Amino acid sequence: MTGVGKGRLGWIGLGVVVLLAALMPLLVSDFFLSVILTKTLWLGVAAASLIFLAAYGGMVSLAQVGIYAVAGMTFANLVAADGGHAAAWSPWLAALAALVVATVVGLGFGAISARSEGIYFLMITLAFSVLVFYFFSQVTELSGFGGINNVDLPGILGNPSQDPVPLFYITLVVSVLVFLALRGISRTPFGLALQGVRDEPARMRALGFDVTRHRMLAFGFAALIAALAGVLSVWYNRRISPGSIGLAQTIDVLIIAVIGGLYRLEGAWVGALTYALIDNYSREYTPSIGDVLGPGRFNTVIGVIFLVIVLASPGGLVGLWENVKERLGRGRGERGSPQSGTAGHEGGPAPGTVQ
Amino acid sequence: MPETVDPPEGGAPKSGDAAPQVTTTGVTEAPEVTAQGGTRWTPKRIGIAVVVALLLVWLATKAAGNLRQFAVVSLNGITLAALYFVVASGFTLIFGLMRVVNMAHGSLYLLGGYLALKLQESWFEEDAGLNLSLSGTSDAEYGLLGWIVPVIVATAIIGVVGVIMQQVFLRWNQGQELRQALITIALSVIIADQMLAAFGGISQRISPPTAWPTSILLPGDVRFGFFRGVVVLSAALLIAVGLWYVIKRTRFGKIVRAGVDDRDMVAALGINVQLVFAGAFLIGAMLAGFGGVLGGSMISLQPGEDTAFLLNSLIVVIIGGMGSLGGAAIGALALGLVDSYADVYLVFGDTDLTNYSILVTFALLVAVLAFRPLGLFGRPA
Fold first, then answer.
1. What residue ranges do the domains of chain A occupy?
2. How far is CA B106 from the centre of its chain?
3. Of the listed ranges A151-160, A263-272, A327-336, B179-188, the one predicted with least confidence
4. Beta carbons of B182 and A258 less than 8 Å apart
5. CA-to-CA distance for B281 and B167, rounded, in angstroms?
6. How wide is the angle at C-alpha B62 spanned by C-alphas B60 and B66, nearest 5°?
């Protein structure tokens, strides 16, 4: 992943994908655009915040949905809506406030959890996420009874249920910006130090880096990304309820990240697309086997897929693709360089190993 | 400062017991440990002691208003803690020995409860026969056996399920903690969905033996539920003593303790570690299943309880320190008491803040982690 040619290839690839995506409204039905593609994009943003932390910080965080919930709930409470505070702010201002609040909450979470590592970190962040869920389930002044509905949207979006195109383009722009920002930050001195912290915390500490602060700042930055996804999710659904930010959603975002590949940013959107497709079409095509399997058993289907991916390819679909590429390359007689033997991710830890 | 030295019961273990340990190990062996905090009365420690003292004083003023209510709320908290301990001890046992975070622990809990319920209904229902028509709902009567047998069978089945889970999915990727956690998350998603399909979404309860009294009268004219106050509490105490005995006094316990410290060395000594791992998973899963039966008789069984008890177990072991049984007991007690006090006493004049009680749980977690990132009795892996 270091060669100049390969880097340029990456830019061309990104350009082609974005161009294709931008043409999608002309090619597919409104239903597909909204239910599959827009959903893919904002779920991808949520998963990207998780993957960023995992790939560059070595922290697999389950708190991302908790932060996304804080952002979504803040936004829904600040604009005109049915339920909640319905403060009737301007949607743009409310979105900004939601991002700020969620980022601050994220920095707080980061400050508490940044001293923990590996599996402890996973558990603590899971506890955060579930606590946020219980908080909003209990405090009905903030979450309405059964959720906040008919949330006011920025005027530019029009009415997404009639014309999904503006929302699609906004989500696409946000996704591209998020991708570029996360890629960019990994090359700044901060990003490089963060990767050092991921691989050798003790050495980095000895070199004078503040390990905890790097982790915390990375967490805060990921919180901003998660907050973007939270606001987008409210724009997409026009509603938010405690049920939509529970453990199920936390695990869904994790599943998306793992399906795509925990150690590559683009995996976020690959996983999200896979998830959205399965989510939508598995109900039609799942055969009914008694109570065990059937149209209502989506979670079983996605759970089994998740299980198979974790068992078979810890690098997810992106990792699988790279393995295949590598095998083919070797088959053609090219000498596999030692670097490409480590599944080729940008300095990410070998799949499945966590310190 | 005579006042701050006396009241901080919660703060005492941190400053009194643990602090000297940190100095000895910190200076001689592991310099990283000292990064966790000083050893003397730093401003941080004095601060937390003052906060704890203030909280206790506040609790005392609330309690003085209605002592009988305070007794019931405290008992509620303690019995809740007993249930949390039963479930979390299995979780912490598995983690301590194998470094496996079993995210399906809550699922095993709920599955145990449902199994016992179904066994009770299908094996012992006809004992009641005639009563069914009276109110339509479960008015069935059950003898002592109608509760004990389902408990034993369900607990045993869950133990076997746990061992199968470990052997099929976790044995071959030992040491890959994250992957194992992800595998158990996947399993928990599947199990939860299958339970929803098989047992439905309504809240159900396991019936305790009809012969047992519903409540008992304690000194001071306090009434408290018999099952909750006597059965659950004594079961938890028995388990605590039993686990303590097994871990401290038996050969198996010795191996487990040695394995917690250094698995590779234990294996090198010729001990069949795989067998010990399977045994630990058996016990850990059985504790989850048994907890499910207790919880199903004491509270209820419904989808979502698996999440709730996974969260409870997580918080208990995060507070107490992963892998420590004593920590699990302290963590469970802290969580249970804080939960039940916050549910009742967060009323200030006319403003009722009991809705926000979850924030108190969160504050407890934060307070512990701020001072001991590995929990009260946690040790670096």
1. 28-283
2. 11
3. A327-336
4. yes
5. 10
6. 105
CA distances A205 to A119, A319, A329, Å, are: 21, 31, 40
Residues 302-321 of A with CB under 8 A from B: 302-304, 306-307, 310-311, 314
Contact B111, B160 (CB under 8 A): no
- pLDDT tens track for A172-206: 999 999 999 999 998 899 999 999 999 988 899 99
Q: Cα(A41)–Cα(A171) distance, rounded to whole angstroms?
A: 6
Q: Find the length of chain A.
A: 355
Between strands B222-225 and B351-352, the pairing is unpaired
Q: How far is CA A142 from CA A350, B65, B214, in A?
A: 43, 31, 38
> Would you say A54 and A192 are in contact if contact means Cβ atoms under 8 Å apart?
no
Q: What is the pTM of this model?
A: 0.83
Query: How many angstroms away from the CA of A330 is the closest CA of chain B?
Result: 27
Question: Residue A120 in contact with residue B314, Cβ under 8 Å?
Answer: no
Give the Cα-Cα-Cα angle B359, B192, B360 (nearest 5 degrees).
Answer: 5
DSSP string, A71-111: HHHHHHHHSS-BSS------HHHHHHHHHHHHHHHHHHHHH
Distance CA(B171)–CA(B176), nearest Å, equals: 10
What tens digit of pLDDT does each residue of B163-219 get? 999 999 998 888 788 889 999 999 999 999 999 999 988 999 888 888 888 888 888
**Would you give the distance in Å from CA A283 to the centre of its chain?**
24
Give this complex's ipTM: 0.82
Residue B311, chain A, CB below 8 Å: the answer is yes
Tokens of B76: 């509620």
Dump strand ranges (E) for chain B.
215-218, 222-225, 347-348, 351-352
Domains identified in chain B and CATH numbers: 1-63 (no CATH), 66-364 (1.10.3470)
Q: Which residue from B179, B197, B370 is facing A297, i.e. has the nearest CB?
A: B197
User: Cβ neighbours of residue B257 under 8 Å, at least 6 residues apart?
Assistant: B247
Q: pLDDT over 70 for what percent of chain A?
A: 91
Residue A126 and residue B314: Cβ atoms within 8 Å? yes
What SS3 state is found at B351? Answer: strand
**Could you tell me if A80 and A88 are in contact, meaning their C-beta atoms sit under 8 angstroms apart?**
yes
Whether residue B181 and residue A122 make contact (CB cut-off 8 A), yes or no, is yes
What is the gyration radius of the CA atoms in chain A, in angstroms?
20
Pick the CATH number of A28-283 from 1.25.40, 1.10.3470, 2.40.50, 2.60.120: 1.10.3470
Amino acid letter, residue A110: G
Whether B328 has its CB under 8 Å from any CB of chain A: the answer is no
Tell me, what amino acid is at A66? Answer: G
Local confidence band at A322 (pLDDT 50, 70, 90 cut-offs): confident
**Cα–Cα distances in angstroms (integers) from residue B119 to residues B133, B154, B155, B284, in the given order:** 21, 8, 12, 22
Q: State how far the Cα of A127 lies from the Cα of B88, in Å rounded to an integer.
A: 14
Name the residue among A121, A79, A125 with its Cα closest to residue A231.
A79
- Yes or no: say if B206 and B301 are a contact pair by the CB < 8 Å rule: yes
CA distance to A14, A151, A156, per residue, from A40 (Å): 16, 21, 21
